[in-house]
Design brief:
Blueprint lengths: L1 H22 L13 H8 L4 H11 L11 H11 L3
Amino acid sequence: MKKLALVLALILGLGGISLLKAQELPCLKCHTSANPLPDKIKKSGAKSAAELVEFIRKKSPKQALHKTVTDEDIKKAFEQFGKK
């Protein structure tokens, strides 16, 4: 019983850590969830953080909405979600 409780606490704790990291992203000020971000990054065709920045700034149909997001925040989102 104690092992089950320990495993459950570990699983919930790790899930909370990843959720906390996702909440730190400015993306979630507009995007309602971090779940679709990996798919959006994949659709952009970006293979690096710099390519994602260029896509969002110059080629994205919603580039005007991303003007207030810094390049560093876009790169951080790629590092967190682009490799999934």
